[in-house]
Amino acid sequence: MPVVYGGICPHPPVMVPEVGGAEADRVISSRQAMLELGRRVKESGAETLVVISPHGPVFRDGIAIMAAQELRGDLGRFGARRVSFEVENDPALVREIAARAGEPGITVLQVDEKTARRYGLDLELDHGTMVPLYFLRAAGVNLPLVPVAMGLLPYRQLYAFGMALAGAAEKLGKKVAVLASGDLSHRLTPDAPAGYDPRGREFDREIARLVAAADIEGILNLDAGLVERAGECGLRPIIMAFGAFDGLAVKAEVLSYEGPFGVGYMVASLAPGEPDPRRRIWEKLSAAEQKAREERLRNESFLVRVARRSLENYFAGRSRLYDETGIPPEFARRAGAFVSLHKHGQLRGCIGTVTPQYKHIVEEVAMNAISAAVRDPRFYPVTEDELPDLEISVDVLQEPEPVESVAGLDPKKYGVIVQAGGRQGLLLPDLEGIDTAEQQVAIARRKAGIGPHEPVKLMRFEVKRYH
User: Fold this and answer.
1) 448 to each of 193, 337, 456, how far by Cα in Å?
2) Taken in order 335, 320, 376, 58, is the CA torsion positive or negative?
3) What is the edge-to-edge ordering of all strands in the sheet holding 390-397?
4) Which CATH number characterizes residue 430's domain?
5) What is the DSSP string of 268-284?
6) Is residue 34 part of a domain?
7) What gap in Å lies between CA 364 and CA 378, rounded to an integer?
């Protein structure tokens, strides 16, 4: 049993008495539960501690592991510089985790002094690691530490990273405890730091219920809208930690939950048990993903098929990108069009034209699909082996019309064009996370390099979106 223990813990600095003072008493349940968690880590016989934090160097396309031999950190940012730790890393475990994570295609960045300088990263332990470490030390736990930063990867890959962690520990014959550091909703009350959302408490209740039942499938299938509105920072670390127990029964126990400052703090224990074939979640995830991919390809619209076939022909080196016969009449006209590429829920490229540049919509889509894949400066070019995982959408633009102010905008219905001094920024309608016209205009301004207070000309447009 390579991973001998797991846990979920919050990380508010106010929980540390040297930081919070009297306010620390408001989270006394969490503090006591953290000491109990530390006691269980010690009793597990773990030889190395892995802490997964959402506040380390977080990347969209990979996972960072701190690889410096000597690790240091303090809570000086929170007024308690004397709360500081120096701890040894476990380089052999770091290397083995990175090697095993690469097998399912997960990019792992081992952050040492040289890498930190190259990417401008901080080698200091973040508070997502420091706060749990404070309570573990108080409980007598003093182990080598491997700090991991969560990645903004698809849940399936995060879960696979946990499996790689377990496989690395098993290969090295090392007993490892893994802690997921993360707070739940930051939107529990009107005075919460991230604002108030009534669904914040719903999210926290559901997470606590699912963790107590060790229901990782339920966690992986949480409603995306609920997660977004919760404003949490703990879900991804939790998924990564559960991945370390794939194929095992897990005895889970919520030791405490409270939210006195408008943020949910949960402490939970995850104790691995005997092998259980029903808990081989990775196999289920892989099968479900393959089924979803096949269904998506089967149901793609005509224009999306044009975009996909154009990409396939481009990578095959064929000169003809699309079939010029059998073009439906509605797509034989000219119009601007945008092609958006997503991979595992993350944007992978988006390029389009406001006014038509080619002889008909089909050619517009074919050419913009290629540009979105290999010419979007925000991303590395798409590779041929990524094509099956791409989710493609096509937006055909209607004629833009001027508006006097943001009052004439609706980000769910209309896209926006912002113009000033020869600069132009565009944002499509109905994008995830864009809820107000003010947000929409601000983003379009930034894309065009237009300052927040510069006078602009606003235009709106509708699109017909194809999936």
Assistant:
1) 30, 19, 11
2) positive
3) 346-352, 337-343, 390-397, 463-466
4) 3.30.1490.150
5) EEEEEEEE-GGG-HHHH
6) yes
7) 21
pLDDT single digits (tens) 299-311: 999 999 999 999 9
> Rounded to whole angstroms, how far apart are CA atoms 47 and 90?
10
Tell me: do 173 and 260 sit in the same domain. Answer: yes
Query: 15: which DSSP letter?
Result: G
Q: Are 67 and 78 in contact (CB under 8 A)?
A: no
CA dist., res. 110 & res. 367, Å (int): 38
What confidence tens digit (pLDDT) does each residue in 194-237 have?
889 999 999 999 999 999 999 999 999 999 889 989 999 999 99
Residue 47 burial (10 A CB sphere; 0-12, 13-18, 19+): middle
Query: Do 417 and 335 share a structural domain?
Result: no
Q: What pTM value is reported for the model?
A: 0.79
- Indicate if 253 and 387 belong to the same structural domain: no
Question: Residue 295 domain-assigned?
Answer: no
- The tally of CA atoms less than 13 A away on the side-chain side of residue 222 is 28
Kindly state whether residues 278 and 337 are assigned to the same domain: no
Which distant-in-sequence residues (6+ apart) come within 8 Å of 357 by Cβ?
364, 367
- By residue count, the chain amounts to 467
CB contact at 8 A, 445 and 373: no
